[in-house]
Amino acid sequence: MIYLGVAGDKAAGGRATADRDTGDTANGGGDTQVFKGRRLVELDALRFVAAFAVMSFHFMAASRSLWNQFPTTVFPEVSRLTTLGILGVELFFLISGFVILMSVWGRTVGQFAISRVSRLYPAYWFAVLVIFILYRFSGVAGFDPKLDDGEYLLNLTMLQGAFGVGHAGGVFWSLWVELRFYVLVAVFSLFGITVRRCLVFMGAWLLLALAAEITQNEVLVFVFLPRQASYFIGGMAFYLIYRFGARAWAPWVFVAASFAMSLYAAQERVGSRVDAIGLKHFPAPPEGVFVAIALIYLLMAGVALGWLRWLRWRPLITVGALTYPLYLLHQNVSAVLIPSYRDDLNPWLLTAITMGVSAVLAYLVYRIVDKPGQRLLRAALEALRGSVRPAGGSRRSHRASVP
Question: Any transmembrane segments, and where (predicted)?
């Protein structure tokens, strides 16, 4: 059956019925992104692009406290690029829409929940612990969340945003957005995911997000994420294109609609920074935002249409795996290193060293904490749930693209 130009599940054949996971061997964490026997290495590459953009933004454009002056005056040569690194988070959201729909398709809510919890929490718990120790027992001041012990404990749940408690890490706000996206997808999956229902869900969400933006109703804003919904929906549309082919016109309608709404959301987000400190200190004009959003949508189109399949460099798998701990901890590494050495080292060299230390730390966290932690937590949750996978059954688990 054909629904709005997209072949139904039974008729789709090909890639629509062939996605399969290879298990834990790809990244050691149990969360892989394998479709029709091929790992989507291009998504690993895009994750690193997003993480590097965010890291460059924080080190070279956003954090005045690091340099004791506006970073864009320290790095004027690249300021028009580094300011747009703020939109690396939006690329993460697009990737997440793609892989989360891939992950939940054909799975129960319990399986989906176990996949997400085991993927997100081990590295996150470690990051909260490191941040707690750093600001309790050292003189480091940059990015201090100024939380009491109870608020740090609440941060371990990742639900602190629901209680009006500050985030231990400056980037943790995006994880709270991701969690609410997961809840929406989990509720949707209770009805059974088909192509037709997916299109209806995406359309309803887009309209409700638009209503939330127009009315600014607190409940609607909390549930439907008007400033982020378009990225998730766009990623889901790209997954439908990847799974069912580019000839289907309905997903392209959602790509176009989400792109338009993303432009608005990005202009508002970046524009608020420009309004706060001025274009001189945050040179991110509207045309630059347009180009950045167009580029990240083009990159996701490249994934959906197979343009990036030439990426076969195996180390990209590890690079993709370490982007999550890199995202969680890079600001705190910079808070330790940059203020301590900014008067002694060339700023470009110091930034490169800080990025290198952040990457090495992220790799160690991935190997020592995240990789085994995912396995242990997944096993514990599956034992608690009492689930037993049938022999030879599908294990389609996909790494969430959180910032």
Answer: 45-63, 83-105, 117-137, 157-176, 183-207, 219-242, 249-266, 289-310, 322-341, 347-366
* Range of the structural domain that residue 260 is part of: 2-12+42-385
Pairs from 294-301 (Cβ < 8 Å, separation ≥ 24): 294/259, 296/87, 296/90, 296/91, 296/94, 297/94, 297/234, 297/255, 297/259, 297/262, 299/46, 299/49, 299/91, 300/46, 300/94, 300/95, 300/98, 300/234, 300/235, 300/238, 301/238, 301/241, 301/255
Tens digit of each residue's pLDDT (9 = 90 or more) over 238-268: 999 999 999 989 999 999 999 999 999 999 9
Q: Please report which residue ranges of 192-281 form alpha helices under DSSP H.
A: 195-215, 218-224, 229-244, 250-277
pLDDT tens-digit profile of 58-98? 999 999 999 999 999 999 999 999 999 999 999 999 999 99
User: Looking at the 3D structure of the chain, how many domains does it have?
Assistant: 1
* One-letter amino acid of 101: L
Give 344-351's long-range contacts (Cβ < 8 A, gap of 24+).
347/67, 347/74, 347/75, 348/75, 351/59, 351/60, 351/75
Residue 23 lies in a domain: no
pLDDT at position 333: 98
Domain assignment present for residue 399? The answer is no
Within a 10 A sphere around the Cβ of 135, how many other Cβ atoms? 21
Q: Does residue 397 lie within any of the structural domains? A: no
Q: How confident is the model at residue 312 (pLDDT cuts 50, 70, 90)?
A: confident
**Paired tokens of 64:** 């005045």
Rounded distance between C-alpha atoms, residue 357 and residue 126, angstroms? 17
For the chain, report the end-to-end CA distance as a whole number of angstroms: 37
